[in-house]
């Protein structure tokens, strides 16, 4: 990276021929000790180090944190594989911390994982164990941080039955804490359990440690703070999810009392109509940018894919799409699972709106567009040709 | 059929002045629509020391409001429970959470428990059921989905902000509306034992970027692909591009697999 800095004056002085009346220099002679001692920067080597490997475009990471990690340091051969997390067993827990994840369809949401993080925080402070109370058996509870798993006896939409089961478990198992996510379903359940058990609920905790929890009250004007009570519901993005150790997720049995049918006579799930849901709530957004000129086909494609329409600011400014469809910093920040960008360059203001999307598909004629780099599936092609081809393929599959 | 709407003394989200809670005005709107279409008695209920700006609810479609006068530090639960029991209401509407009080959304649940009523949360629309004595409730779920529930009356229902917008204020309605004042029950609130101090917003967790990362890293985490280095197809024929895209979308489950 750096080599000794040359000192031209010292070099010159070393070449001087001694003894002459006029100053004479023997330039053929190489000086022995002519360096100043200060190191000299080598910008080319620095740049080589800062180059981020594995990207399509040449990218430099000046902070060099990633660069240093990417250069393989000479390592002893006998290092253990770092990827297998250690299994931690808690055979005789001092107390139990239970949590009730939403886990729609048996898959933990990010909010659920944060709930596990909070439960581990409370349990690890005193040698306790985490019990996950789930209704369909959810996946990877061991990696999420559950020591024990208890399956609740519920079928269909029956929050009252679930609350009664939880209330029974709370009393019988002597749970020190029972945690819920402050989501639509988890929040409802938490309040039902609070009303049933007569325990106070600490609703919407915004920070949580083993010693104190806080929440907002009085129209977010005051903050209430206290030691963690039995029932807590946790606001989203308040606690980091658990990472590092693997836990046992041992199934445990518990005799729940039998419940009778509640007041809900029938429940029917109605999926969202993608054309009508607001952009902030949408699950799958398809967006048009300045590279789309054929809006008839774009609208047909949206209807065929069952996506919520979005657009870049250029398109909204031109009046080709309503302002409500604008995605980005000055439009809507999406919470979607998948984003499909047609002819969008990917300006930072636009990418901010897509930051939370897990999957991105981009079609753009420009190989160097930022959107192409952001995408999980990037297609360098003309959107005006890909859109009709997609429509044809969907029609073909529908008829087949 | 008799409908009651519970109104709490709210505070404006920005100015902090006393104001009705928006979602409770939406509940008033839902109830007023129900009354116009299917006929019913509608009453608002508030327990507290003062009605203040809740009188405005009369202008948003509420024909009469009952104010149960309690002390400033009294628990509204016993007064409300007594009034609701006496009124023999079939449908009780409340907001999801209040804004300006404890803001925990617990009161409707505690009230349902005290009255022995079932409770249904997050209603966005109401309609009478096919058989008498039942009610169709459309429950708002995250991501714009809905759940249609058929429940037996009497029931307590909390209203979700996804319900239709509140009716605009009408001065004539506010003048026509009747405000009735009754004494409530004194019930000193038990101390929560929580320490209170001015609210301080806390930073939200930012996904992926570690704590203490530089601004450049946080921007990178916010704008770069989650999985890093996706698949790239340069100038494929449109048919192949379409196949690839559809297969990818079906793979993550946003379009149906065929
Ligand atoms: C304060 C501020 C706030 C802003 N907020 C937002 C915001 O919230 N949302 C937002 O979107 N923008 C916002 N912008 C604007 C933003 O900076 C960009 O100007 C804008 O996002 C660019 O839109 P675009 O990608 O559609 O258009 P362009 O930048 O014109 O990009 C068009 C892309 O389409 C490609 N293309 C061209 N022809 C085709 C074709 N036939 N097939 C496929 N691809 C093709 C091109 O290669 C190019 O990459 C904001 C700007 C400012 C200054
Ligand atoms: N003092 C009160 N009088 C009447 N209704 C109330 C009162 N306090 C709360 N409510 C109702 O209960 C809901 C939830 O309140 P809270 O539990 O305080 O968040 C509110 O939206 C109101 O509908």
TrEMBL record, chain A:
Family (UniProt): Belongs to the ETF alpha-subunit/FixB family.
The UniProt entry, under SUPFAM superfamilies, shows: Adenine nucleotide alpha hydrolases-like, DHS-like NAD/FAD-binding domain
Xref: PANTHER family: ELECTRON TRANSFER FLAVOPROTEIN ALPHA, ELECTRON TRANSFER FLAVOPROTEIN SUBUNIT ALPHA, MITOCHONDRIAL
What sequence ranges are listed for the domain Electron transfer flavoprotein alpha/beta-subunit N-terminal? 97-273
What keywords tag this UniProt record? Electron transport, Transport
Task: Return the InterPro entries for the record.
Answer: DHS-like_NAD/FAD-binding_dom, ETF_a/b_N, ETF_a/FixB, ETF_asu_C, Rossmann-like_a/b/a_fold
Source organism per entry reads: Ancylobacter koreensis
Q: What is this protein called?
A: Electron transfer flavoprotein subunit alpha/FixB family protein
Give me the ranges of the annotated region Disordered. 1-48
- Composition-biased stretches, type Basic and acidic residues, lie in 1-14, 39-48
TrEMBL record, chain B:
Gene3D superfamilies, A to Z: HUPs
User: Which keywords appear in this protein's UniProt record, sorted alphabetically?
Assistant: Electron transport, Transport
Q: Which domain of life is it from?
A: Bacteria
Limits of the Electron transfer flavoprotein alpha/beta-subunit N-terminal domain: 9-196
Name the InterPro entries for this protein: ETF_a/b_N, Rossmann-like_a/b/a_fold
Q: Name one Pfam family in it.
A: ETF
Does the record carry Cytoplasm as a key word?
A: no
Q: Per the record's keyword annotation, is Electron transport included, yes or no?
A: yes
Protein name according to UniProt: Electron transfer flavoprotein subunit beta
């Amino acid at each position: 990276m750096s080599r000794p800095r040359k000192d031209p004056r010292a070099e010159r002085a070393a070449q001087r021929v001694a003894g002459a009346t006029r100053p004479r220099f023997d330039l053929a002679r190489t000086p022995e000790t002519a360096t100043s001692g200060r190191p000299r920067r080598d910008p080319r080597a620095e740049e080589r180090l800062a180059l981020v490997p594995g990207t399509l475009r040449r990218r430099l990471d000046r902070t060099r944190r990633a660069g240093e990690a990417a250069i393989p340091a000479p390592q002893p051969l006998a290092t253990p594989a770092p990827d297998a997390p250690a299994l931690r067993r808690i055979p005789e827990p001092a107390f139990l911390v239970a949590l009730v994840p939403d886990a729609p369809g048996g898959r933990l949401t990010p909010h659920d994982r944060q709930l596990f993080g909070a439960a581990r925080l409370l349990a690890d402070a005193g040698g306790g164990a985490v019990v996950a109370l789930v209704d369909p058996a959810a996946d990877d509870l061991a990696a999420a941080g559950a020591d024990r798993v208890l399956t609740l006896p519920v079928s269909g939409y029956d929050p009252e039955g679930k609350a009664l089961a939880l209330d029974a478990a709370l009393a019988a198992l002597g749970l020190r804490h029972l945690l819920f996510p402050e989501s639509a379903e988890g929040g409802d359940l938490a309040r039902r359990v609070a009303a049933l058990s007569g325990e106070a609920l600490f609703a919407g905790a915004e920070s949580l440690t083993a010693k104190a929890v806080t929440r907002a009250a009085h129209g977010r004007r005051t903050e209430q703070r206290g030691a963690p009570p039995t029932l807590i519901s946790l606001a989203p993005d308040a606690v980091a999810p658990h990472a590092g150790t693997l836990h046992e997720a041992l199934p445990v049995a518990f005799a729940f009392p039998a419940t009778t049918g509640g007041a809900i006579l029938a429940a029917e799930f109605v999926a969202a109509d993608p054309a009508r849901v607001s952009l902030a709530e949408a699950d799958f957004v398809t967006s048009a940018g300045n590279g789309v000129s054929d809006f008839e086909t774009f609208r047909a494609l949206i209807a065929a894919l069952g996506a919520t329409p979005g657009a870049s600011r250029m398109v909204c400014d031109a009046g080709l799409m309503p302002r409500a469809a604008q995605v980005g910093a000055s439009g809507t920040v999406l919470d979607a699972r998948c984003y499909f960008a047609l002819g969008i360059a990917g300006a930072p203001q636009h990418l901010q709106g897509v930051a939370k999307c897990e999957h991105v598909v981009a079609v753009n004629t420009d190989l160097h567009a930022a959107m192409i780099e952001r995408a999980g599936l990037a297609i360098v092609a003309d959107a005006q040709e890909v859109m009709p081809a997609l429509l044809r393929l969907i029609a073909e599959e529908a008829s087949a | 059929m008799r409908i009651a709407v519970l109104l709490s003394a709210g505070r404006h989200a920005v100015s902090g002045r006393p104001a009705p809670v928006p979602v409770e005005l939406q509940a008033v709107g839902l109830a007023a629509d129900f009354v116009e279409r299917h006929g019913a008695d509608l009453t608002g209920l508030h327990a507290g020391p003062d009605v203040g700006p809740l009188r405005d609810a009369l202008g948003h479609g509420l024909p009469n409001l009952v104010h149960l006068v309690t002390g400033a530090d009294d628990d509204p639960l016993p007064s409300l429970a007594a009034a609701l029991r006496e009124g023999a209401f079939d449908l009780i509407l409340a907001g999801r959470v209040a804004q300006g009080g404890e803001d925990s959304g617990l009161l409707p649940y505690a009230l349902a428990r005290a009255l022995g009523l079932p409770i249904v949360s997050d209603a966005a629309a109401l309609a009478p059921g096919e058989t008498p004595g039942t009610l169709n409730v459309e429950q708002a779920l995250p991501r714009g989905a809905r759940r249609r529930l058929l429940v037996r009356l009497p029931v307590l229902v909390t209203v979700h902000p996804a319900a239709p917008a509140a009716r605009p204020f009408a001065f004539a309605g506010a003048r026509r509306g009747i405000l009735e004042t009754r004494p409530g029950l004194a019930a000193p609130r038990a101390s929560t034992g929580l320490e209170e101090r001015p609210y301080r917003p806390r930073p939200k967790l930012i996904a992926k970027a570690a704590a203490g990362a530089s601004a450049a890293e946080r921007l990178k985490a916010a704008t770069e692909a989650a999985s890093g280095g996706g698949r790239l197809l340069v100038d494929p024929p449109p048919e192949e591009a379409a196949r690839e895209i559809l297969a990818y979308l079906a793979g993550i489950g946003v379009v149906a697999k065929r």
